[in-house]
């Protein structure tokens, strides 16, 4: 009995010793991986550079949006006309829906961004997304929509969605501007700007934007707006001190 016990203890000991050495090996490995990961995280975490600012209209001409007649599916789309909201400018001149971005500075995140068709309008009108991200097109209406995406004069998607709740996903790989219209309702319009970096923003109602997490350095800050076109500014990004920028459009 004693012998059996001793043998059992010995086996248990050796088992636990084996377990320990595996664990130790594993631990070592884990530590290595952890160390590697934390150094990567650290590098990211130290990239605290911020570019923020405003996009303002300083021009003299009166900006006018066209009215587009609602010609069909009035029970869902409404009656009268829709305003083609190219220019959405606040009383202080802040320009909404301008895309501000830094090109070619790191890999963009692959995310899924929603584009909803509701009351025969696209929401949001302007989207900024990283290259390789997915545009999720949703029909929230009881009428048929056919979203049509064009990039560089080429149709890159055409989604026939004949009933409410239909969802289609399209991966947008190529950086650039994708114009989205609906083949059925001529007034519907949206834009997806595909960007080859993780650093982009769309201006809000006040024309404000903020891009954070940038490593310090010198960059070209680009702007795209469906009505005003393109602009660029050189910016210097420093650690812990936001760079303030004003884009003046006219
Ligand atoms: Cu439509």
Write down the secondary-structure element order: HEEHEEEEEEEEEEEEEEEE
Shape: globular
Helix segment tally? 2
**What proportion strand?**
35-45%
CATH architecture of the largest domain: Sandwich
Distinct small molecules: copper (II) ion
Unreliably modeled segments: 1-45
CATH superfamily of the largest domain: Cupredoxins -  blue copper proteins
Largest sheet: 5 strands, mixed
Work out the radius of gyration: 27 Å
State mean pLDDT (0 to 100 scale).
85
Assembly annotation: single chain
> Strands across the major sheet, in which order?
7-13-12-9-10
**What name is given to the CATH topology of the largest domain?**
Immunoglobulin-like
Quick one: how many beta strands?
A: 18
CATH hierarchy class name of the largest domain = Mainly Beta
Structural class: alpha+beta
Number of domains: 2
Helix content: 10-25%
